Amino acid sequence: MKFLIISLLFLLPTTAMAQSSAVKQIMKMAKEDNRTMQHLDILCNRFGGRLAGSPACETAEKWAKKCFEEWGYEVSLEKIGDMNVGFTRGGWWGRMTGEENMVLHFATPSFTSGTKGPQSGHVVLDPLSQIEFDRNKHTYKGAWVLVENLSLKGVAINYNEESMKQRAEIIKSNNKIAEGQGRYLDRSKFNKEVPALFYKELVEAGILGFIRPATVPLNARYDRVVVRENYTFEQLPTVPDILLNEEQFARVYKLAEERRDVRLEFDIRNYFRPGPIPYHNVVASIKGSKYPNEYVILGAHLDAYDIASGSVDCGNGVAAVMEAARMLAVSGAKPERTILFILFGAEEFGLRGSKAWVEQNKDKLDGISMMFNRDSGPLPYVGFKAPKSLVKEYDKIAEPIRQLYPEYGFEVSELKPFARPDAPRTADHFTFRWCGVPAGRMVMKDVMGYGFDYREIWHTERDNYNKVIVEYEEQSAPVLAIIALGTANLSKKLPREEVYLPKK
């Protein structure tokens, strides 16, 4: 009898035994063959900032697809849309000469104009009324225009028709103020709500570009007029939009006010190319052995701003998702539900990739058990908030994580149902929450006290490879792999009524 039982165990290996073997293999790779940082190095230091519409982003799409294919996944590049123009950022430098010399610390939003080689010119103040513009009209040709409006988020100056109408109203108001001031205008009295009130007139007068003060670390996003209104190659801006370190700006501005000898020189290599330029989601899948039409999603966004290398936002997420996929492939895991790995495109342009995916896959939404999105910094996972009926099951799933990383711990706690968002915003998982799909509540924490501050790096010049904490980043991939596999093998899909509050 004993021999018969042993024989049956060998003849009928259970799914649980097979999955246990896969988890053990993932745990082994986590310690001995963790390639998360290798993926991140290639993504950020070989390709660089991956703005949608840039050659770097196209290269990253092809590279990610090739990696998934090599690991044995079915992979597709799913088109999101086309851009009328593409953008490539080269190098940039600048200096002040004249009575004082200074190397300038600055940036430009993407999809804004570069210089025509190194360009040097004098400095003028941004005119705030028609009287001031007319008085100084002869000085604008070949000048850099100092615009007082502080740039907080790094967006470009808006110059579309609606903004021009707003400018016209402000100019009318400022003209009335100027008429009552006589010869000497008090600039502090004027409305400065919109930068560059005489934008078109100054460009036509032959200025070299606009310069605005910006907080440090410099934040440089993109020209929303070009991107959101899908401008054509012929409609592109023709002069640079420069965001200068606010302390340096204050010094330059003071010298200009005092009519001192100050000249600025910039060399900005911002390049465009005509479209249409397609951009995509990269989607890889491993088919479920039992419930192929039910899904677990691991996601991150592949695009990144190009003022730096996009290592934190969101290279860290892409590298973790890709390594989780590699670990699952090598482990021989046979998930009961289909696992999808989605690297979303154009997240930084308004969640375009995730919005396109849910629109193109409406038939899959009801079958999604859980969507996990990594896009909030390279911190380790220390817990998960699970629906009440699945807390015990997730606690078992998490046991290997606690064994792997006892110094971090991993607590499974009960998820309190919350309201669905009324619109997709902020990050890709909100697109899924908006559709009623459970999107994971993973808990992250700077456990070892490295002092990581996402706000310091987010969308700034500091978003580079050296800001990623290696031990944290390497922990994220095996945790995602184990949690995704465990979720795919749960006794049931996540109950949505335990995740979201009823709609009012």
Question: In summary, what is this structure?
Answer:
By secondary structure, the chain is α/β, with parallel strands linked by helices. It contains 15 helices and 14 strands.
Describe the structure.
Strands 1, 2, 3, 4, 5, 6, 7, 8, 9, 10 and 11 form an eleven-stranded mixed sheet that branches. This protein has a three-stranded mixed sheet with strand order 13-12-14. The protein starts with a helix and ends in a 16-residue tail after the last helix. The protein has 15 helices and 14 strands. With 504 residues, it is α/β, with parallel strands linked by helices. The radius of gyration is 27 Å and the shape is elongated. Helix 11 runs parallel beside helix 13.
Properties at a glance:
single chain, 504 residues, alpha/beta, eleven-stranded mixed beta sheet, three-stranded mixed beta sheet, 15 helices, 14 strands, 35% helix, 23% strand, elongated, disordered N terminus
